[in-house]
Amino acid sequence: MSDRPNSTGDRLDPAARAEPGGGADPVGDRPDSVGGHTYHLPEGLPAPAPSPDGLGAEFFAAARRHELVVQRCPSCGTWQWGPEYVCHHCLSFNLAYERVEPRGSIYSFERCWHPVHPALNEAVPYLVVLVELPQAGGVRMVGNLQGDPLQDVEIGAQVEAVFEDHEEADPPFTLVHWRVPSKGTVWPG
Amino acid sequence: MDAETHLVTDLEANQVTDRTLRGRTAVVGIGETRYYKHGTSPDPEFKMVLEAILAACEDAGLHPRDIDGFASFSHDRNDPPRIAAALGLPDLRYSGMVWGGGGGGGSGAVAHAAAAVATGLAEVVVVFRGLAQGQFGRYGRGDRVQAAEGPDAFTAPYGVLSPAQNFAMRVRRFMWEHGIGQEALRAIALTSYAHAQRNPRAVMYGRPLSAEEYDHSRLIVEPFRLFDCCLESDGAAAVIVTSGGRAKDLRQKPAYIAAAVQGSGYRQAAAAHNAPDYPTSNFKTLAPRLYAMAGVGPQDIDVLQSYENFTGGVLMSIVEHGFCRPEEVNEFFTPETFAFEGGRLPLNTSGGNLAECYMHGLELIIEAVRQIRGTSSCQVPEVKLSMVTSGPMVQPVSSSIYSSEPGP
User: Fold this and answer.
1) What is the complex's ipTM, to 2 decimals?
2) Which CATH architecture has domain B20-137+230-403?
3) Is A13 contained in some domain?
């Protein structure tokens, strides 16, 4: 990865702009996608990796399969996130990961304007959401909210996960973004 | 054993008189280098630390070789054995570090110093912080690593790399839950800049800020604008703590340490923004212990220095220390409330982290001591109790109360 300004990826997916609440490009001229990738944020940001000892590896492997997993204690049933070595409730070291429905609700959010990394110099603003997963004990996950970066964000709104594959990376990885589902979506359960 | 059980036990312990720090020690010396904008100090960080310590000794009327202990915080790079060697100290009897980033350990380091003195581990303990930020990195630019491991793996790939971004969602949630407007944050920034205009030490001295300039300043990460964010600075600061008995014979009016405590609530450091109680400055478990140790309440505090990493942190700190209820914030948080002249709660009277200097809040502790001495450039009349809250939203945080009178 380098410090050069983004030249191979465009954070704004043209399809995403057409989503409800999207519409006209709100942030002026931006280069269209080149190189075939339409990532939400440009390439060059740090790639996600498990700790050197493997803690968290199950989550990243599941994301590659477009599945969402959360750590759960088989002994007492407590959910916890991020990954830890011990259950914070019953203090068992015997922990497992459980697949959960990839959806949640927006608990908080932030619209980022200052580019905190060279890769973001031409990519602001963008939206970060903190998504609460009620089906997993209320644990929260951080991701980007897709669609118009200037959209009104409603705390409490339902969102669904969007798995973004970075196949050309070495090793390949998958990010977990979020979007407000189109109207009429019926969730299982 | 649950979190609530711990809290009750702690409160009871603090009410046992022979286990309190209240009034047993005092700040007797304060010292600072000149404060610089980041990257403009001509001196390296370690040299500035030595300068600040020597200035504090001069202020106190102590010989540097009277020092026998050090306390610091925020992973300070300047370790006490090196300082002791540089100053030729005969016996380094105590060194202590409060873990955790930012300024959360500022008052906690004072607590360490006071505890060391009160228990006879040392006689004269220096609390110091050296911070030449220009010689290291920038807050607004994340580390340029290829892969983010550990907790960062769940945030950095999504463009969350700066302190402002790590705290904005806590503040946003708090403001949303209580219907708090942007004007509350603005009042904090305007207060710091107004007070800095009377303080020639302040980096922002001579650079006033108007409400209009605040409103039109660039957005960093909503809800924070530029002026909601702390400065980045080069400098060093030190305060000297010794026993209440010895303090009476020294050069300055003692600022007795009525209370100094640190704390962090239940799972506040849970990774990837998973603290169960999220919209908090992390002072909820600490504030009752602080007031119990000092034997006072928020209504007794004459002047407050509240650590501003970001204005939103001050907002929650003031609420969680009991100065106003969340539903009162919109009416309470005005520049008039916080003005040193006639305000209900004079706040950040040196300009603080926003406008004086970002010395990880040790400059706030120094200003609290000035208020006891009566030497602030924004002096509040007849200060008896002067309080500091250190480092909201980090883990741990800490607070301290200074008194013009020794304790019981």
Assistant:
1) 0.93
2) 3-Layer(aba) Sandwich (3.40)
3) no
